[in-house]
Design brief:
Layout (H helix, E strand, L loop, with lengths): L1 H11 L18 H15 L1 H15 L4 H11 L4 H13 L8 H22 L7 H21 L11 H4 L15 H9 L7 E12 L8 E5 L7 H8 L4 E4 L5 H5 L2 E4 L10 H4 L1 E4 L1 H4 L2 E8 L8
Parallel strand pairs: 1-6
Antiparallel strand pairs: 1-2, 3-6, 4-5
Helix pairs in contact: 2-3, 2-6, 3-5, 5-6, 6-7
């Protein structure tokens, strides 16, 4: 990660703004940070607008965690979605000028938009079905579309996310659960010929994750892949790390599901074999796959 950031800084250093490579976040988990960004920029732009937006955001900020907010929604049959939308609409109506550059406006607008999606995503936990997952997937896709449009018709982008988000959901059990992901949506909206879905996998190693959602990050051991899984097969058939093109994958990879390990930010090694393998039609899920025989934990960038 550090090497990528340093390369990007060097690459952009002598290029005009319209030729530089941008680096953006696509997730919506940190709504508190996005609200801080919106309020900070509004405070520098318009103090009255800042005060009004602070009051609107207080609707959501007053709750200490997601559980307390959802309990309040149930108890009072009311939510903060309209308040979040109101801030977004006011931000959308602003015009870049002396006190607000176009780049600052874009950052302001997109963080306000993220807060709207984050509140919807949070509230969707009260309903049965795939809504919570799909709202997040839709946000990923719309973020990519906005950025592609912003950079122009010839622009290209790379989206980094877990295999569960990148690999086409239609080639897994997610399809039966009516769940979508950015891999599927990108193929559908941009055309399969304009999208390359690249999966990553490993047989064993170490990784950084939390024992539960929101837990502190820790170094964990990754058990050997289970027999019969995609990673187990690759480990025993290949003697080195490898990139595998899958555009013309053999029939067996399109018709027969193999377990494909999925490790997220919340992970428990002791239940890896029971909970972390997604039955997948590998040749349909990905356009290519990079396999590492052994991996080691990343060194996260320090703030």
């Amino acid at each position: 990660t550090e090497a990528l950031v340093e390369w990007l800084r060097e690459y952009n250093s002598d290029r005009p703004m319209n030729e530089r490579v941008g680096f953006y976040g696509v997730d919506l988990q940190n709504k508190a940070l996005s609200m801080e960004v919106v309020l900070e920029k509004l405070n520098n732009f318009d103090s009255e607008l800042y005060s009004w937006a602070s009051s609107e955001y207080h609707c959501l900020n007053r709750y200490s965690d997601r559980r307390s907010y959802l309990q309040a929604v149930i108890a009072h049959d009311a939510h903060c979605g309209d308040a979040m939308e109101a801030v977004l609409e006011r931000v959308r109506s602003l015009e870049p000028g002396d006190n607000l550059s176009e780049e600052q406006w874009f950052n302001l607008w997109f963080n306000a938009k993220l807060v709207v999606y984050a509140e919807q995503n949070l509230r969707s936990n009260l309903s049965q079905g795939p809504d919570s997952w799909n709202i997040r997937a839709e946000h990923f896709m719309r973020t990519a579309e906005v950025l592609l449009n912003r950079y122009g018709s010839d622009s290209k982008g790379v989206v980094w996310a877990h295999n569960t988000h990148i690999g086409d959901a239609r080639a897994t059990g997610m399809r039966q659960a009516a769940m979508v992901n950015i891999g599927q949506l990108a193929r559908e909206r941009l055309g399969s010929d304009n999208v390359f879905l690249l999966g990553f996998g490993t047989y064993k190693g170490t990784l950084l994750a939390g024992g539960s959602w929101g837990a502190d990050m820790e170094d964990m051991s990754l058990p050997n892949a289970i027999p019969g899984s995609w990673e187990h097969i690759l480990y025993h058939q290949l003697d080195s790390d490898v990139f595998i093109p899958l555009e013309n994958a053999p029939t067996i990879l399109r018709n027969q599901p193999f377990g494909n390990r999925a490790v997220g930010v919340a992970y428990q090694p002791e239940s890896d074999a029971q909970n972390n393998y997604v039955p997948s039609l590998i040749g349909l899920r990905y356009d290519g796959f990079i396999f590492f025989r052994n991996t080691s934990s990343l060194n996260p960038l320090q703030p």
